[in-house]
From TrEMBL:
<dbReference type="GO" id="GO:0005096">
    <property type="term" value="F:GTPase activator activity"/>
</dbReference>
<dbReference type="InterPro" id="IPR035969">
    <property type="entry name" value="Rab-GAP_TBC_sf"/>
</dbReference>
<dbReference type="Pfam" id="PF00566">
    <property type="entry name" value="RabGAP-TBC"/>
</dbReference>
<dbReference type="InterPro" id="IPR000195">
    <property type="entry name" value="Rab-GAP-TBC_dom"/>
</dbReference>
<dbReference type="InterPro" id="IPR050302">
    <property type="entry name" value="Rab_GAP_TBC_domain"/>
</dbReference>
<dbReference type="GO" id="GO:0031267">
    <property type="term" value="F:small GTPase binding"/>
</dbReference>
<protein>
    <submittedName>
        <fullName>TBC1 domain family member 10A</fullName>
    </submittedName>
</protein>
<feature type="domain" description="Rab-GAP TBC">
    <location>
        <begin position="1"/>
        <end position="84"/>
    </location>
</feature>
Length: 168
């Protein structure tokens, strides 16, 4: 393996730090949205101290290409290119709500390990493109059809508290 010139190392480290910081912010936004969309899933993840970065990093960094079947990935990407980043959040919310959104589903997830295993192995019925894109499955009406993610990225809460995220 070829060594990088010394001048490239600080650049790569700072670039990696920026990417990780963006993923952390995306996780905070997703968690705040989850609290409004599915309080059952939100409370379960909070109870077991499961940070969003543990399950959503692969989803967001790979735009679901390593999680969903190819037909679903293409549908998600198509909508992403048409409607923007909110589609990535919407698909993540649909998955979380349907996998963890009821007390019956949580009976098999009594702890961190079981919950993480469930989130890593999405059931095939939740991965179908028709299921993921159903508007009626995810009630975002109180969040508005378009939440302004650009505004959230600029100032997620002023004091970095996810409880105060501004959703327009």
């Amino acid at each position: 393996m070829k060594r990088q010139p010394p001048t490239a190392r600080p650049f790569l480290r700072s670039r990696q730090a920026l990417i990780l910081e963006a993923i952390q912010l995306d996780g905070e936004i997703l968690f705040a949205l989850l609290r409004r969309v599915s309080t059952v899933a939100y409370k379960h993840l909070k109870k077991h101290k499961i940070d969003p970065v543990l399950y959503m990093t692969e989803w967001f960094m790979c735009a679901f290409s390593r999680t969903l079947p190819w037909a679903s990935v293409l549908r998600v990407w198509d909508m992403f290119f048409c409607e923007g980043v909110k589609i990535i959040f919407r698909v993540g919310l649909v998955l979380l709500k349907n996998m963890l959104g009821s007390s019956d589903k949580l009976k098999v997830c009594q702890g961190l390990y079981e919950t993480m295993e469930l989130l890593r192995t999405v059931e095939p019925r939740y991965m179908q493109e028709g299921f993921l894109m159903r508007e009626d499955d995810l009630d975002l009406s109180d969040l508005s059809d378009d939440f302004d993610l650009a505004d959230l990225y600029e100032n997620p809460a002023g004091d970095s508290s996810t409880d105060q995220l501004k959703l327009v």
